[in-house]
Amino acid sequence: MSRGKLPAWVDYGLLPLINLAAAFLVAGLVVLLIGENPLEAVKILIWGSLGFGEGVGFTLFYATNFVFTGLAVAVAFHASLFNIGGEGQAYVGGLGVGLACLALDRFVPWWVTFPVAVAGGAAFGAGWAFIPAYLQAKRGSHIVITTIMFNFIASSLMVYLLVNVMGKVGSMQPETRIFEPGGRLPLIRELLPNLDLGQAPLNLAFVLALVVSGLVWLLIWRTRLGYEIRTFGANPTAAVYAGISPVRITILTMLISGGLAGLMAVNEVMGSQTRLLLEFTAGYGFVGIAVALMGRAHPVGILLASILFGMLYQGGAELAFEIPTISRDMIVVIQGLVILFAGALEHVFRPSLERLFASAPAPAAAAQGS
User: Fold this and answer.
1) Confidence of residue 370 (pLDDT cuts 50, 70, 90)
2) Per-domain residue ranges of the chain
3) Could you name the CATH architecture of 8-352?
4) What pLDDT, in 10s, does the model give residues 297-320?
5) Which of 68, 165, 182, 200 sits most deeply, having the most CB atoms within 10 A of its CB?
């Protein structure tokens, strides 16, 4: 990802905050136009997501999904690859998680199934990303087009499997049987009964998301492979001159990206739904693109952006309940505005900030002048 002529604290901190403020300002005008108080709406949204235990639990549950899909997009970003296939990779990752749980849940405890499910989700997600990666690396097919198309293929594949192969016997619902306790992740409220999380489905996948975030930071900024990924993304010609194989980096980066997206299924399939069913991804793969953009493809930024979108999901539900004139469609509009300013309009305010900081005297020059 290219970075402008701005201090790091501005590029990674101030600019995203300005974009977010602009998004909420426009959203506030929309709320005002329908005759409601924007300040009251913001108050309800924040209270609904952070004001009580169950709200916090749901916010962190949603954020867990966004961490995985945001990291998936971010890793690809660092190699200048735009992975739009997180939705499909997470969907097929659910197949890996579901197969692990169905095979083991009746024979072993959950803590034995858990690492197998994690490996299954990552492997199936990575496998689904392999063909677009190969086509990009070997045939020059654009990664954006192929990953988008593979989202539709993944959806059709899962419909076929759940209807004709893996569906529960005697049921009209396209879903597998409910997993036994050996295939279910413990909920945080079960592990910490003194922590009031209400009925929130927050589970150990949240801890997995934090661990994976740290591992991604180590990979990108503390390993040789990460250095090669960033070098290739910054200047492919220089990377080739330095002996870095474009084919190898493209395929490895997309495998890692797809594996991260596949891990999202651990939270939904093994943690919340406790079965494999249709459309469990619910658009989280696409929101991960905005999360990665807002978080500047850095794990810390992605964690913060994921919590923000978790607040929008959970707080938006409370807002629609408390103020019926602000429907769920209006909440989608607000989410869309955040995505718009974080993504498509991300550089609207950058030129002005660059001029502002370019005109400011450098610290050394200011010290000499004094």
Assistant:
1) very low
2) 8-352
3) Orthogonal Bundle (1.10)
4) 999 999 999 999 999 899 988 888
5) 68
